[in-house]
Design a protein that fits this description.
- By secondary structure, the chain is an alpha/beta fold.
- It contains six helices and six strands; from the N terminus they run βαββαβαβαβαα.
- It has helices spanning 9-13, 47-56, 77-88, 108-111, 133-144, 150-156; strands at 2-3, 18-22, 34-37, 65-69, 94-100, 115-119.
- It is elongated and about 60 Å long.
């Protein structure tokens, strides 16, 4: 799924238990009533960071609470696995917001339990594209390609 502006993150996240937002690293995201989880040593979000978070989530929430994990691709394997139960069955009114610029670096078990949103880049195309016929034909083939056809198209490109 796609979204247009980072100002929409809180609104979108409030409708899900766990969402991954793929945005550039320099995009500022403001979320009210958030617990922010960041790597303490700038290289990994550790098991200690997650244990501290889970301890803070032990209370029943009466208002929406957002857990902002950024960059989510720095979750260590152990810390990511420790989060899984909470991502599968989040408490009422708890919303996990995982922010990354590289969704492919998040472990697949977390991605499978999340709704993934990509920030739209650039302006929509509202007129004819000025490209040569070969480029247009390749683009059209890519749009409808089956996974098995992608290597051959990639070689042509």
């Amino acid at each position: 799924m796609f979204f247009n502006d980072v100002s929409e993150v809180q609104s979108i996240a409030s409708r899900t238990g766990c969402a991954v937002f793929v945005v550039p690293d320099n995009e500022k995201i403001d979320i009210k009533n958030a617990i922010i989880v960041e790597p303490t040593d700038k290289t990994i979000i550790s098991m200690d960071d997650i244990k501290e978070l889970l301890g803070r989530l032990g209370k029943k929430q009466t208002t929406d609470l957002f857990v902002l994990i950024r960059p989510a691709d720095l979750l260590g394997l152990d810390s990511a696995n420790a989060l899984l139960k909470n991502l599968e069955e989040p408490q009422d009114k708890v919303h996990f917001v995982l922010v990354t610029s590289q969704a492919s670096k998040i472990i697949p078990t977390i991605l499978s339990r999340s709704v993934i949103y990509f920030l739209k880049k650039g302006e929509p195309i509202d007129g004819p594209i000025d490209a040569d016929k070969k480029v247009m034909d390749l683009a059209k083939r890519l749009v409808v390609a089956k996974p098995v056809d992608l290597p051959a198209i990639a070689e042509e490109i």
